[in-house]
Amino acid sequence: MRARLSYCGLECEPEVLEFDMTARSVRTPSSEQVRRPIYRDATEEWRAYEEHLGPLNDALGSVLDAYPDAPAAFPQR
Question: What is the span of the domain harbouring residue 32?
Answer without folding.
Answer: 19-49
